[in-house]
């Protein structure tokens, strides 16, 4: 059984998009005057949006490595040292020239996880290998119609 090792560096494009989306609420408040009670109503919504953005940004800053086997199993490694998590790629993943959306399920849980892998996170050959694995999982494990 052969395997490919992929090292996912933090994505610069995704970080830039998250930073630009963080700028629109202050710009909106600057351009559209609002009464004080409108600000009080909008603050919890803005805080929760910023909190989700910060969590996504922190996830993007983590470097990860994964070992991709030909049978569709994946071993995930986070660089700040955590044990490898064995997973299986599920059907339903998306592949484009800019990003890949992975769906996987860990062997010991029923929860389905997802992650976007952007093209600037790894070398092109590794990106193509991951795209091939996702397409193969979609082709082999299609739901019966």
Descriptive overview:
Pfam families: Cpta_toxin. InterPro entries: YgfX. This is Toxin CptA. By secondary structure, the protein is an alpha+beta fold. It has 2 domains: 3-11 and 64-140; 12-60. Helices cover 43% and strands 28% of the residues. The protein contains 3 helices and 7 strands. It has helices at 12-31, 36-61, 124-140, and strands at 3-8, 64-69, 73-78, 85-89, 94-95, 99-106, 112-118. Strands 1, 2, 3, 4, 5, 6 and 7 form a 7-stranded antiparallel sheet that branches. Helix 1 runs antiparallel to helix 2. It is elongated, with a radius of gyration of 19 Å. The model has no long low-confidence stretch (mean pLDDT 79).
Supply database-style keywords:
single chain, 145 residues, alpha+beta, 2 domains, seven-stranded antiparallel beta sheet, 43% helix, 28% strand, elongated
Instruction: Name the average pLDDT.
Output: 79
The secondary-structure element order is: EHHEEEEEEH
Give the N-terminus to C-terminus distance in angstroms.
31 Å
What is the alpha-carbon Rg in Å? 19 Å
Main sheet record: 7 strands, antiparallel
The chain-level structural class is alpha+beta
Shape assignment? elongated
The number of distinct structural domains comes to 2
Q: Which regions have little confidence, pLDDT < 50, spanning 5+ residues? A: none
**Number of H- or I-type helical stretches:** 3
Number of strands: 7
DSSP strand (E) fraction?
25-35%
Which helices and strands appear, and what pairs or packs with what?
Blueprint: E1 3-8, H1 12-31, H2 36-61, E2 64-69, E3 73-78, E4 85-89, E5 94-95, E6 99-106, E7 112-118, H3 124-140
Antiparallel strand pairs: 1-2, 2-3, 3-4, 4-6, 5-6, 6-7
Helix pairs in contact: 1-2
């Amino acid at each position: 059984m052969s395997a490919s090792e992929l090292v996912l560096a933090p994505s610069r494009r995704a970080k830039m998009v998250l930073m630009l989306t963080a700028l629109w609420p202050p710009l909106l408040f600057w351009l559209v005057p609002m009464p004080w009670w409108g600000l009080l109503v909008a603050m919890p919504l803005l805080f929760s949006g910023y909190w989700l953005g910060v969590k996504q940004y922190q996830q993007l800053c983590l470097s990860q490595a994964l070992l991709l086997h030909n049978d569709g199993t994946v071993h995930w490694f986070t660089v700040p040292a955590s044990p490898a998590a064995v997973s299986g790629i599920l059907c339903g993943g998306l592949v484009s020239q800019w990003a890949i959306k992975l769906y996987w399920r860990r062997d010991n849980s029923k929860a389905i996880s997802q992650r976007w892998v952007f093209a600037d996170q790894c070398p092109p050959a590794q990106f193509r290998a991951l795209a091939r694995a996702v397409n193969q999982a979609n082709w082999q494990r299609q739901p019966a119609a």
